[in-house]
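Researcher: Can you fold this with flavin-adenine dinucleotide in place?
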Amino acid sequence: MNRIIVVGGGIAGLSAAYYAQKNIPDAHITLIESASQWGGKITTDRVAFDDGQFIIEGGPDTFLASKPWGVALCKELGLDERLHGTNQNKKNTYVLNKGRLLPLPEGLAMMIPSDVPSILRSRLISWFGKTRMGLDFLLPAKSVNGDESLGSFVSRRLGREAYENLIEPLMSGIYAGDGDQLSLASTFPYLRDLETKHGSLARGALEMRKKSSGKAVQGSRSAFLTPTTGLAEIVEALVESLRLKGASLRLNTRVTSINRNLDLGRRAKQRQWNVTLDTETLDVEGIILATPAYISGQLLASFDPELGSTLQSIPYASTATVSLAYRLSDVPRDLDGYGYVIPRREGRKALACTWTSTKFPHRAPEGYALIRVFVGRAGQDIPWDENELLELAKEELQLTLGITEAPLLSRVFMWDKAMPQYNLGHPEILKRIDTALEKHPGLVLAGNGYRGIGIPDCIHSGELAVEKILKHEGHKETRS
Ligand SMILES: Cc1cc2nc3c(=O)[nH]c(=O)nc-3n(C[C@H](O)[C@H](O)[C@H](O)COP(=O)(O)OP(=O)(O)OC[C@H]3O[C@@H](n4cnc5c(N)ncnc54)[C@H](O)[C@@H]3O)c2cc1C
């Protein structure tokens, strides 16, 4: 029997274990997690309150429906009917601009404006900025060899003002990154495709919008989805499925090193990897490392120092979320949308603010507001203290929404080195990692550090990791 170990019980590791159990029927799967709960960045607090409950997400709060792997896994787990879309009746999103909330123009397709009248009406961009945006229709596609930063690309197509006031805050919400450092090829490669295919971002975005509205008619409910009582439902269903099918699930267990047992030589069927835990060493044939890249780098450094340092060269930004609950009557402003994003140039510590109880009304009891402040971005220090973060969030809500009452309850989640930064050079890092892994059959990586940070991408990375293990198994069968 094959023995496969998955290290890291976040969504990538859980998905890898799930697909390994499904697709390699004779394998024995062990899933190791150093924390005391499953899910990694996915963590949901369900707080009973006044005959109802607050559903408070500490990390991600929703996932993108258009990337198919999240919805597909939920279907397999029987969660399909429990998926909620965002509130379609109050869809406004705002951008903080010189301290005021201004509505995001309508018609953004994958972040790019495609509705000219709505841009012309927007107060987010000056007339000079709008004229500069119009040049996008005229400027020829530039042939750029190699990669380019997201900031430089959007600025050369739409102008710096559109980048800073419109695109940068939206992009920050996803990567908590610095757009002038982020690699276009690794973050939003389709933007370059739009330029090449359509000669203009706006023309390309319009095409994309037409195509996606066609798809919406075919039945997709909302661009973003989440299960009824929070994303932890996915984690709970995965753990339950793994348990029922006999996987070994170990919480509070840290992998401290990994080594390759080269003495086995040609007897490839034998267990060639030694995985050392706090108290014992396991010999296994396959390892899926679904830990953050810098931890995977530390674990592999002893037998492949170059691979170890390449993995550790992927930078991560630290973030925090602060959720606060109020009586609706204590919130002076109508929470008539999903919330607001904050451009870097505003100089605030907060990055965005989600009006959770409007975006997902079922997450707060009737008559109450649940608001989440997202703090921290690449290159910015955040106070690493629960009380300071709470004060910072309250100050943000006072400044922008005028809330002066104390919250009825609050939850602070701190995420140290949580958001990988796919900076310029990331594609080359990935190539080096792939080349190094060719020398280590049976060892594969999964998780948000490489080819996608969102939940569906992480699920897909787990599924792909299992395919790679299966390929390796296939080779062994033919050799033996
Ligand atoms: C605040 C925040 C908001 C986000 N919002 C969204 C969103 O709305 N939508 C979306 O799609 N994505 C969002 N993301 C991104 C997404 O949540 C993450 O990219 C994803 O959950 C990461 O999953 P993962 O399994 O790769 O890593 P992790 O969740 O980090 O899991 C890795 C696991 O490995 C464990 N581990 C580490 N070292 C060891 C060791 N030595 N031995 C054993 N175990 C170990 C860790 O404890 C951890 O549980 C958000 C992220 C954050 C932080």
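Model: Folded with flavin-adenine dinucleotide in place. The chain has a mean pLDDT of 92.
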